[in-house]
Every structure is written in C-alpha cells, then in structure tokens.
Amino acid sequence: MDFKKLGKKLAGEGLPLIATAFAGPAAGSVAKMVTGALGLNDNASEDEIIQHMESNPDAVIKLKELQLNHEAELKRLGIKESEMYLIDTQDARKAQIEREKQTGKTDINLYVLAWVNVIGFFAVVIVLMFADIEGEANNILYMLLGVLATCFAKVNSYFFGSSQGSKDKTAMLAVGKKA
Fold first, then answer.
1. By CB distance 3.0 to 4.6 Å, which of 14, 93, 124, 151 could disulfide with 117?
2. pLDDT means over runs of 10, the chain (179 residues)
3. CA 129 – CA 29 distance, rounded (Å)
C-alpha cells in the first residue's frame, strides 16, 4: 500500500518521525502501530486513517503520544531507510565496475545521462532567471526544475558520494591487476 497522502498529512500535523517511517520498508508495521493507537482496524486504508484524523480531534494527540513513546524505534526505521538507499547506490557503482571489468570498456551511457541531467538542470535555472515566462509554461518549468534537481542530486551522490573513494580504490586495484 502507498502511504504518500498519509505521510504528508502526518508531517503537516507535526509528526515527522511517523511520516518518515511510512516512506520506508516498515510502512506496514508502522500502519499497524498507527491504527492501533487510533483504535482502528489493522486493515484500515490510508483514506480511512486520514478521515479518522480529520473527524477526531484526539487522533493527532494519540499519534503524538505514539511518536513520543516509540521515538527510538521510529528513528531506527528512518536510519534503516537511509542505509538501504546507500546500499542501493553502492550496488549501482559495483555493478558499473563489474561491467567495465568484464567488457574492458567504459559505459558511456552513464556519463551521457549524467551530463544531460546536469546541463538540463542549469539550463532550466537560467531560463527561469532570465526569461519572462508566464502562465502554465512557467508552472511546467518549475515542475521540470524539481525533477531535474532530484536527478542532479542523485548524479552528485553517485559520482561524489561517501563511497566514491571506495569506487576509486577498486578501480585502481583493477588497473593494478591488469599490469
């Protein structure tokens, strides 16, 4: 089940730990905690939970108590989500290195895609700074900027992230073995 609407609602109510936990792999467990705190059926849908929160003023108080009582566990779930993201990024780098070892060629598509994202990001920023665009086209440009900013951040994370040194060391070792 996708809990995006509920996550936004919870974040808006000052419940960031619960909202963040809904974005991770333990969303089902967190949903049971939330439904239990609210006195709802474990199988309550996202819309039912939101409707209950909006119609019952005590619901947010109960969820704040839940967040306070389970703060350590919710933080641990948030850290687990971050760890999974980092592992995924590292796996992508490892896969790239393995492909390059097996084929002996650099995957140019990776670099072309990265440069297209970087150039596109700065192009949209420049257009928004200097062009006088009004109406729906301006909204589309801002949406495009959001997408490109996310891609730009991921490109930077991939190429310059915390495990970049590990990638460089592995590449140097691979070159040393061929010599």
1. 151
2. 70 76 68 82 81 84 80 70 66 77 84 93 91 84 89 85 56 55
3. 45
